[in-house]
C-alpha cells in the first residue's frame, strides 16, 4: 500500500478544529462505548517481541488479541517451495497463548512480497495446487487458536478503473479472479470455525478513487456470498491520513451493503499517518485521536466492528516512516502508545470506544 503526500493547508486548517474537537471525540467515545466490549488488539513484530521486554509488557497489558505483522506472510513462511518456516509465527502464537490473548492470521493471499519462486509460477494447475496447499498447511497448523484470517488482502489495484479491476500478481495471472473463491474455500476447508475476512485499505475516504475501491470490495463480497463461498467479514484496514476527509456517507452506504450481505466488519490495521500535521506533539496527538474517533464512530453508526486492531501498539516500531517521513524530520506518531510506551489520546479514544481500558 502506498499513497501520495497530503496538502498542508487543509491539514493546518483542521488543526484548531481538531484540538477543540478532541474533547468532543473523547466525550462521544465515553458516551457511546462504556458498557460494551469490542476486542482490541495490535499487530506484533516477532523481532521486537523477542528483544524488548517493555514491548511485551505493553502488548500483554493493552491488548486482547494480536496479529503477526509479517510472520505469517509468504516471504517469511515460504523461503522456497519445499519449506514452511513457522518459527516466528509459533513464537508469537506462544506469547499470545501464554498471555491469554487471541490471535488473527495475516495473510494467506496477497500481492505484497511474494517470493520469487512463487511469482514464477505460470501454470494454472500448479498455481491452484501451491495456493491451496499453502492455505491448508498454514490454517490447519493454528486451527482452533487463530480464530480469524485475512484470507485475501488488498485485491484492488491502487487506482481501479472498474469494480472488476484486480491487482495483477501471480494468482491473478494464473487463476484470474477465481483465486479469491479458491482461497476462501481452501481456508474454510482447513478450519471451518475460523472467521474468513476480505481485507482492504483506502476505502475510508472522500474521492472517486476510494469510492471505486469500495465498489470493488463490495462486488467481490457480493459475488462470494451469491455463490455460497464461505466469507464472514470485511476488514477495513483504516490506515487513516490526517489530511484526508473520512467519507462518512460513502463509507456508511458501503457498510450498509456489507451488513445486507450478512457480513461482519473489522477494523484491522488502524493508525493515523501524520505527515502533514503540525510538529507540536500534543497538537498532533489531538488531531490523530480526533481523526480516529471520527472514523470509528462513522463505522459504529452502521455497525459495531467485531474487533479493532491497530497496526502496531507503539510508535517505536511503526511501519509508517518506511513510506511517509515528515518534512520537519520529526518522528511519526501514528499509534496508541508513543515510542516510550506512554499512552496518547488515541489510546484513550480506542479504550473508550472498545470498553477495553486496561
Ligand atoms: O526482517 C527483515 C530484515 O531481516 C532485513 O534486514 C530488512 C531489510 O531488508 O527487512 C526486514 O523485513 C522487512 C519486514 O517488514 C520486517 O520489518 C521487509 O523488508 C519489509 O518489506 C516489511 O514491510 C512490511 C510490509 O507490510 C510488507 O510486508 C511492514 O513491516 C508491514 O507493516 C506492512 O504491513 C502492511 C500489511 O501487511 C497490509 N496492509 C498495509 C500494511 C502497511 O504497509
Q: How many extended strands? A: 9
Unreliable parts: 3-9, 29-33
Which term fits the overall shape? globular
Fraction of helical residues: 40-55%
Order of helices and strands: HEHHEHHEHHEHHEHEEHEHEH
> For the report, how would you describe the main beta sheet?
8 strands, parallel, barrel
CATH class: Alpha Beta
Overall pLDDT: 93
CATH architecture annotation name: Alpha-Beta Barrel
Bound small molecules, by name, code or SMILES, are: ligand G3I
CATH topology: TIM Barrel
CATH superfamily: Glycosidases
Counted by DSSP, the helix tally is 13
Secondary structure: elements and pairs:
Blueprint: H1 8-33, E1 40-44, H2 46-51, H3 53-62, E2 65-68, H4 74-77, H5 87-98, E3 102-110, H6 116-119, H7 124-141, E4 146-153, H8 170-175, H9 179-190, E5 195-200, H10 208-226, E6 233-236, E7 239-241, H11 248-260, E8 264-273, H12 281-300, E9 308-310, H13 345-354
Parallel strand pairs: 1-2, 1-9, 2-3, 3-4, 4-5, 5-6, 6-8, 7-8, 8-9
Helix pairs in contact: 1-12, 1-13, 7-9, 10-11, 12-13
In short:
The protein is of the alpha/beta class.
Amino acid at each position: 500500500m502506498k499513497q501520495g503526500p497530503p496538502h498542508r493547508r487543509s491539514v493546518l486548517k483542521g488543526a484548531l478544529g481538531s484540538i477543540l474537537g478532541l474533547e468532543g471525540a473523547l466525550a462521544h467515545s465515553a458516551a457511546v462505548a462504556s458498557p460494551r466490549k469490542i476486542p482490541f488488539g495490535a499487530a506484533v513484530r516477532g523481532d521486537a517481541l523477542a528483544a524488548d521486554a517493555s514491548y511485551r509488557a505493553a502488548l500483554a497489558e493493552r491488548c486482547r488479541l494480536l496479529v503477526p505483522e509479517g510472520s505469517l506472510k509468504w516471504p517469511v513462511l515460504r523461503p522456497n517451495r519445499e519449506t514452511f518456516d513457522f518459527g516466528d509465527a509459533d513464537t508469537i502464537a506462544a506469547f499470545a497463548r501464554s498471555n491469554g490473548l487471541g490471535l488473527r492470521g495475516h495473510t494467506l493471499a496477497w500481492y505484497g512480497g511474494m517470493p520469487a519462486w512463487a511469482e514464477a509460477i505460470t501454470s494454472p494447475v500448479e498455481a491452484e495446487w501451491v495456493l491451496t496447499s499453502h492455505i491448508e498447511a498454514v490454517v490447519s497448523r493454528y486451527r482452533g487458536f487463530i480464530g480469524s484470517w485475512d484470507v485475501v488482502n488488498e485485491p484492488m489495484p491502487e487506482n481501479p478503473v472498474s469494480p472488476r479491476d484486480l491487482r495483477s500478481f501471480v494468482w491473478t495471472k494464473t487463476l484470474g479472479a477465481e483465486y479469491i473463491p479458491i482461497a476462501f474455500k481452501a481456508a474454510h476447508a482447513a478450519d471451518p470455525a475460523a472467521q474468513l475476512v476480505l481485507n482492504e485499505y483506502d476505502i475510508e475516504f472522500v474521492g472517486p478513487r476510494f469510492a471505486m475501491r469500495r465498489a470493488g470490495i463490495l462486488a467481490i463480497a457480493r459475488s462470494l456470498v451469491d455463490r455460497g463461498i464461505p466469507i464472514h467479514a470485511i476488514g477495513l484496514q483504516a490506515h487513516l491520513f490526517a489530511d484526508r476527509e473520512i467519507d462518512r456517507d460513502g463509507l456508511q452506504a458501503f457498510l450498509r451493503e456489507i451488513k445486507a450481505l450478512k457480513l461482519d466488519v473489522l477494523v484491522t490495521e488502524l493508525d493515523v499517518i501524520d505527515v502533514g500535521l503540525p510538529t507540536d506533539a500534543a497538537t498532533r496527538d489531538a488531531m490523530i485521536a480526533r481523526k480516529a474517533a471520527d472514523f470509528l464512530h462513522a463505522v459504529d453508526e452502521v455497525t459495531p466492528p467485531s474487533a479493532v486492531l491497530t497496526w502496531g501498539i507503539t510508535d517505536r516500531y511503526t511501519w509508517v516512516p518506511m513510506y511517509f517521513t515528515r518534512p520537519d524530520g520529526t518522528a511519526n506518531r501514528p499509534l496508541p502508545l508513543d515510542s516510550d510506551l506512554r499512552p496518547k489520546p488515541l489510546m484513550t479514544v480506542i479504550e473508550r470506544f472498545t470498553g477495553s481500558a486496561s
